[in-house]
Design brief:
Layout lengths: L6 H4 L11 E2 L1 E7 L6 E7 L9 E4 L3 E8 L4 H10 L4 H11 L6 E7 L4 E5 L8 E5 L2 E5 L7 H11 L4 H15 L8 E7 L7 H4 E7 L5 H26 L3 H4 L8 H14 L3 H7 L10 H8 L12
């Protein structure tokens, strides 16, 4: 066991103190002004910060609840914004009802881009927040008070989609000093602007690093993988819908030399994937032509493998 995780047990319990898990951390909540996507990104020296801090719902808003966490701010904040309250109205209402609001740090953004943030006066220093155009950055138990200003500056300067810009904000926080205790976990949650009626499809990014010596590096790696799988899913869906042009399939769009080269690279690393090609025609995801299937399968380093293996 990491001895640092025992540190909270050494603290003196104060009678009447607020209950709740500790998630001292830095985070960002934001809405993309172009796409309407909303999200939360967070890093902490706490195990598995993902289930506690980030909350978001398509067409509704996003919430980060941290410090001495009252998780209720997440689902309850979304519920109030779903009813039509602005981010500020929702946050003000929940803070007023929280008898221990002095140890909370919460930020919200709603689907119209309204932003609200709150830092209780008993959050462990250094602690604070800053809001900008449809975003808020917040941090507590930081190594120094430059953390959240660095996050704000990085997000405003960053380019790319919402996930990329929020990642740059987190990286700027860590570069400025980050959590005084170090780092352990991270998470990112991004939802579409408008709900599809299928919540599981509304989350474009929902990634967590539970325990790592380099959580932001690992989170960025997972984001790259997620982007690749998003493209793969789009291609598979277009092929299934018999829209090869939209799928940009090299093999079925007169780019066979390029496609065969890519197949060779893939099969060189994972020869068994060549077997998958033979199964795709049945699902309508590859031409139902034995000659074309054979052409692709032969890109395996040793050609067609023995079916009897």
């Amino acid at each position: 066991m990491n001895v640092l995780c025992l540190f909270p047990l050494l603290l003196v319990a104060v009678p009447g103190a607020a209950p709740g898990p500790l998630a001292h951390t830095f985070s960002i909540v934001a809405r993309d002004t172009k796409t309407g996507e909303m999200g939360v990104a967070v890093q902490s020296h706490a195990f598995s910060v993902g289930p506690l801090v980030p909350w978001a719902e398509s067409g509704v808003g996003a919430v980060a609840t941290q410090s001495l966490v009252l998780v209720d701010y997440g689902p309850n904040g979304l519920a109030l914004m779903r009813q039509g309250l602005t981010a500020k109205e929702a946050l003000d209402s929940l803070v007023a009802a929280d008898v221990h609001n002095e140890v909370r740090q919460v930020a919200m953004v709603d689907a119209k881009g309204n932003v609200a943030a709150y830092t209780g006066d008993k959050c462990i220093p250094d602690a604070g927040h800053l809001t900008g155009d449809q975003f808020s950055v917040q941090a507590n138990l930081m190594a120094n008070p430059t953390i959240w200003p660095a996050m704000k500056a990085a997000f405003e300067k960053a380019e790319g989609d919402l996930a990329e810009r929020m990642m740059q904000a987190l990286e700027a926080a860590q570069k400025a000093g980050g959590d005084i205790r170090g780092k352990q976990s991270a998470a990112i949650l991004v939802v579409r602007a408008q709900p599809t009626g299928k919540p599981w499809e509304d989350r474009t990014f929902d990634l967590r690093v539970e325990d790592s010596a380099k959580p932001l590096e690992e989170l960025r790696r997972l984001i790259r993988l997620r982007r690749a799988y998003i493209l793969e899913d789009q291609g598979d869906n277009f092929i299934s819908a018999k829209q090869p042009a939209e799928a940009l399939s090299m093999y079925t769009n007169d780019r066979k030399p390029e496609a065969l080269k890519m197949f060779r690279l893939v099969f060189a690393r994972e020869p068994v994937w060549a077997d998958l090609v033979e199964r795709l025609p049945k699902a309508g995801m590859f031409p139902d032509d034995p000659k074309q299937v054979e052409e692709v399968v032969r890109q395996r380093p040793h050609g067609r493998m023995d079916r009897g293996r």
